[in-house]
C-alpha cells in the first residue's frame, strides 16, 4: 500500500520485503486504532493504554532489540514513521517502551531482570518508563541530583525527575541516579513506597500522551534492582541514541500526513474557477514540501543502514534528529498555508502535528544540544560545557 508521494520517491525499491511488511503492520495499526480516535483524544488529553497491547500483538515492540541481530533496523524506523503519521504521542509510546526502557534492560540488565521484564514488555502486558531528565538539568544530565545511597544490602533513591513519559501508567521505571561511585541505572517497581508520578498539566503538545513529574521519597530497592551493566552516564546516553534514531524517521510521518492533507485539498478545492492544484504557486509549495520530505526520508534510510551495520555514530544521529525535525516543521507550516483558514481547524491533522513537533524538537536533545554535538565532531572542540 503506497501513497502518491511514496510512489514519486520510489522508496519501496530501496526496501526489503521484511521492511515493507513492518511498515504495513504499523500503518494498519494506525488506521484501525489511532486515526479514528486521535482528534478526540488530543482534544480530551486522553491516552489509550490498550494501544500498547495492540503494539505488542504486532511484534513491533521487540524490533529495537531484534534489529541488532536480524537486520530489522529500517523496519523499526518505518514503523516509527507510520505511528507518527497517526500522532507523535504513539511514536513516543514506542520509543519509551522499546528504544529506552526495553533497550536499557536488554543492554545492561541481568538475565533475571531480562526474564522478569522483557517478555511482558514485548507483549505489551507491562509498560516501562525512562527516568533521566530532572527539573533543573534537562539538557545537562550530568548535573543530576537524584541520589542512590547504600543501606545495607539495599539502595535508597531520593530526588525528582521531570517530563517522564507515561510514568503514571508504567509498571517499571528505569531510573538513573548518582551513587558514590558515579551514575547508575536501577529498575524500580512503580508500586514501591515513596514513588510518585504526577501528570504535568496544561500541555498544548503531545496531548494524547502523558508526561509526569516523578519523585523518589527514600524509595528502597534491593541490590537486585540495580542494572549491573549500567554504570556511568554514558550508558544512559547510549539509550538516547536509539530513541533519536526513531525520531529521525518518525517526524517524517507527521510531515507526510500534513503534506497529503494539503495535496488532497488542492485537488478538490476550487478557487478563481479552477482547482488549487492548477495554480503555479500551489504547485511550487507542493514541490518544496516533497523535496523536503524526500531529503528527510533518505537521510533516515541512510542512518538505518548504518545502524544495521553497527557503524552509526551519535553525531550522525544528531544530524538526523536535528535536520529532520526542522524539515518536518517546515513541511507542516507550508501545508497549513495551502489549506488556508481551514488548516487551523481539527478538520485536518496539521495543527495537531505542528503542536506535537514543538515537543519533539525539544525532547531527546534540544536543537542547541544537537548543534553542539555536530559542531564538536566537525571542529574537535567541545563547546557543550
From TrEMBL:
Residues of the Acyl-CoA dehydrogenase/oxidase N-terminal domain: 16-125
Co-factor(s): FAD
Domain (Acyl-CoA oxidase/dehydrogenase middle) ranges: 129-219
Biological-process GO terms, alphabetical: fatty acid beta-oxidation using acyl-CoA dehydrogenase; fatty-acyl-CoA biosynthetic process
Classification via Gene3D superfamilies: Acyl-CoA dehydrogenase/oxidase, N-terminal domain, Butyryl-CoA Dehydrogenase, subunit A, domain 2, Butyryl-CoA Dehydrogenase, subunit A, domain 3
Pathway the protein contributes to: Amino-acid metabolism; tryptophan metabolism; Amino-acid metabolism; lysine degradation
Catalyzed reaction equations: glutaryl-CoA + oxidized [electron-transfer flavoprotein] + 2 H(+) = (2E)-butenoyl-CoA + reduced [electron-transfer flavoprotein] + CO2
EC number(s) on file: 1.3.8.6
InterPro entries: Acyl-CoA_DH_CS (IPR006089), Acyl-CoA_Oxase/DH_mid-dom (IPR006091), Acyl-CoA_Oxase/DH_mid-dom_sf (IPR046373), AcylCo_DH-like_C (IPR036250), AcylCo_DH/oxidase_C (IPR009075), AcylCoA_DH/ox_N (IPR013786), AcylCoA_DH/ox_N_sf (IPR037069), AcylCoA_DH/oxidase_NM_dom_sf (IPR009100)
Keyword Flavoprotein recorded: yes
Keywords: FAD, Flavoprotein, Oxidoreductase, Transit peptide
Keyword Oxidoreductase listed: yes
UniProt GO molecular function: fatty-acyl-CoA binding; flavin adenine dinucleotide binding; glutaryl-CoA dehydrogenase activity
Sequence intervals crossing the membrane: none
Residue span, Acyl-CoA dehydrogenase/oxidase C-terminal domain: 231-378
UniProt xrefs under Pfam families: Acyl-CoA_dh_1 (PF00441), Acyl-CoA_dh_M (PF02770), Acyl-CoA_dh_N (PF02771)
Family membership: Belongs to the acyl-CoA dehydrogenase family.
PANTHER family recorded: GLUTARYL-COA DEHYDROGENASE, MITOCHONDRIAL
Protein name (record): glutaryl-CoA dehydrogenase (ETF)
Source lineage: Bacteria, Bacillati, Actinomycetota, Actinomycetes, Micrococcales
